Amino acid sequence: MLELNNVSVTHVQGHNRNTVVHGVDLSVQQGECFGLVGPSGCGKSSLLWVLAGLNPHWEGSINMLDRDLKPGQLFKGDLRREVQMVFQDPYASLHPKHRLRRTLSEPLKKLKVQDIDDRIEQGFKQVGLTSDMIDRYPHQLSGGQRQRVAIVRALLLEPKLLLLDEPTSALDMSVQAEILNLLNDLKDQHQLTMVLVSHDPNTIDYMCDSAVMMKAGRIDQHRRY
């Protein structure tokens, strides 16, 4: 599903360039949950943003879903739909001034999907949310509820690869377990391949089939899971 060879990632701000990931090699098999674990600032989220098509400033070789990606190019066509991301902060994918129905409907309308309202209701039911929440604003939900909606937003597009950037770190401990169990169930139901970024080794141990430790922008060859 995913193969990286000698991948480096750069942050570009004006004329300043800062390489934050150096020479990463890794592979992710279909149907597995693959973990990137390491302390804050080690480059794991920066690598995930490249895989989501959100940062085109990288070098090396990436094959994703049988497609060779090219540095400097944004995702297009089916790839834009087949790779989805759940962010640490659900506000990153939920418009604060739009009702949830509008936010979730817009990408489906662009894809000319039928029965949009039914799909959204089914998505809410699948993650344990009631249909009356669909017409609320994000601020009217708890943090755990918002993250469930963010998961629905990603799954409505029927992705093949789901990227998870610290999806529970902003939540209370009791809610964290609920979200992780939910993701495990959804992985099995939808036959998803997932890449999970976390600073918490316990989360990685619980969720992932395989994982690597990152340190200072590189995979730590002495710390493998």
How does this structure look, described?
The chain has a single domain (30-54, 74-224), classed as Rossmann fold (3-Layer(aba) Sandwich). It is built from seven helices and ten strands. The chain has helices spanning 44-51, 78-82, 100-110, 116-126, 143-155, 173-190, 201-207, and strands spanning 2-13, 16-28, 33-37, 58-64, 67-68, 83-86, 161-165, 193-198, 210-215, 218-224. The strands form two sheets. The protein has a six-stranded mixed beta sheet, with helices on both faces. A four-stranded antiparallel beta sheet has the order 2-1-4-5, with helices on one face. Strand 1 (2-13) and strand 2 (16-28) form a beta hairpin. The radius of gyration is 17 Å and the shape is globular. The mean pLDDT is 92. Belongs to the ABC transporter superfamily. Glutathione importer (TC 3.A.1.5.11) family. This is Glutathione import ATP-binding protein GsiA.
What characteristics describe this protein?
single chain, EC 7.4.2.10, 4-stranded antiparallel sheet, 32% helix, Rossmann fold, alpha/beta, ATP binding, membrane, 225 residues, Glutathione import ATP-binding protein GsiA, 7 helices
